[in-house]
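I hope you will forgive my troubling you with a question about protein structure. Here, with my thanks, is the record as I have it:
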Amino acid sequence: MRVARIIFDKFTQLFLHHQSFSGYVEPVVQYFLPAWRDGSYRAKVQAVNKLSSLYVEVTLKPEKGWPRHLAGQHINLTIEIGGKLLTRTFTIASSCDEHQLTGAIKLLIKVGENGRFTGQLYDVLRTKTWCNISNPYGEFTINSLKKPLLLVAGGSGITPFIALLSQHLPLIKEPVRLVYFAKEHEHQFIEQLNALQMKHEHFSFTQCVRKNSHPVDVYVSENRLSDVYCCGPFNMMKQVQNACEAFGMPYYQETFGVRKELLHAAGTDSNRFTLKLKQSSTHIKSGGTLLEQLELQNLPVIRGCGIGVCHQCQCVKNAGVVRDVRTGQLSDSGQQLIQLCVSEPVSDLELNI
């Protein structure tokens, strides 16, 4: 099967000017299977609920064959907006037992008014029947169920903890405490957390508004025998990590979002970045398009019109940020389809070419 795929892809590159055979036949397959894309799973949109001005809950039913996820893992969600495929990473907000029972998974998504993806997500998904999701991945899972746990969440960082608590609380006998920071009136899953607290005597949670609460290291110091798990804004996680190091406590974290410091530091002509390819890596500069730089290094890329019209140089960006030289618009940080001829790097990149 693998040999046949390589042969078909090579034929397609030589005679049809596409990177892969599956990409060439994709529009035909989509006529019968909406949103079908090679390397992704289809998921049916079951519900899109606006929880507040900041948060949306999305319920998806993955197609058969989607692998069973572990509580705390995340997926790449891909939707088409304005003819472009945009991808972002979201943590699954439901347990694997719930998926096995209902066939569905839930996502809690913080929507940004100015976000190219999340700002449009509610309206777009309400009109979509299908979208694409990746395999579940990530290692933010409970290391030991036999030790006291302190969970520290900030904002949408509550998402992995909802899945972890739902999945593991029945199996845990040691005390589990959740400290949950969010803006006033923006805490999510409170009904579910209250139900878990009533059902499991060893679980408790504290609902915090940062301006009215103790510093986060106070909560860490009160639970010195615990393993500490943290997910939230960068500065909050750094405070928790520093406190854990000071008290000698085991610490695990989940980072989400793109740090603004990375984008502000990037984009000057003096910057050099690492480009990771399938079987090798190289260095690239912030100035100049990816197509120009890869051609100068004699790397295997296809050149078409060179101005972003024919799409022959398109490829999948798995990670990193690029700038569209025509508009100055920055890409998302996750998996996304880009055109090499109109994209210049502003961070380290991983490409599938």
Summary: The radius of gyration is 22 Å. Residues 14-18, 257-270 have pLDDT under 50 and may be disordered.
